[in-house]
Amino acid sequence: MIQDISPAHLNNHYDPTKTADENSIILFFTKEKKLLGRLDDGTQEISFPRFNVVKDIAKEKLTYLFSIDSEDFFLMIADSENMDFLDVSAQDSDSYIFHDFRKFRSAYYYPQTYVYAAFTAYQLAEWYMVTRFCGKCGAKNEHSKTERAMICPKCGNIIYPRINPAVIIGVIDKEANKLLVTRYRVGYGHNALVAGFTEIGETLEETVSREVMEETGLTVTNIRYYKSQPWGIASDILVGFFCEVTGSREITMDNNELKFASWLSPEEIELQPLEYSLTNEMMKVFKKGAVKK
Length: 293
Ligand SMILES: [Zn+2]
Hints:
The chain has two domains: 10-130, Nucleoside Triphosphate Pyrophosphohydrolase (Alpha-Beta Complex), CATH 3.90.79; 164-287, Nucleoside Triphosphate Pyrophosphohydrolase (Alpha-Beta Complex). It is globular, with a radius of gyration of 22 Å. The mean pLDDT is 93. It is built from three helices and 16 strands. Strands 11, 12, 13, 14, 15 and 16 form a six-stranded mixed β-sheet that branches. The protein has a four-stranded mixed β-sheet with strand order 1-5-6-2, with helices on one face. Strands 4-3-7 form a three-stranded antiparallel β-sheet, covered by helices on one side. It is an alpha+beta fold. The structure holds zinc ion (ZN).
């Protein structure tokens, strides 16, 4: 999956004392979800600008994000796609362009640590962009000096990074040995599983039952946790569950959410083109007959 970067390690402990050095990687995001980088379609290699090719940007303007092994990543929110801040005399500085950040996950680009870095950084960039002002009193927020938080100097309101829990559900018909496979009406076009966000006041297991009922009209039992995955696009943490259908197998599809929902046997399930998602791994586990009871 996208987060499986071992033996590399993402250290997301917030260190407010970190400042960029010449080798630090700077992730420039625009408000339009674009990220500055180089994607080599020949070698499939990703690179991001380092501080030594940046000029006229004070180190204090960069926000420390995280490190992966010995490499530190900093965030800079760019006002536009203007790249005057790149030192054109530096080697290769002209080959960076702003890409829609989802492009970094559209094929197997390397190293995977940078793909994962781009999506983790996107979540933080989004959060920093929407927390510039206090939602209670409207004053301009400041960075906490001790932890990853924004603090309102006027009313003391503290805002921590937001993570939205969502479930991915592998519904199994045990007797027929089939899995409930879906395709979303909009967005991602390949096979998926029933999924949805947790509502306030709900357990994850209740989300599973509700989402399966809403999207397909089915009732489930024996709900058990499989694995989780930080995903990024909707600031979500995906929580994967397997469960079994009980009662009627007849699907009543929610046409607003889905364009396809069907019971498929292991050999009928076509996997996604990339092995990045928890959904794909769950379909694969079912295909192999390896779902734990
Ligand atoms: Zn305030």
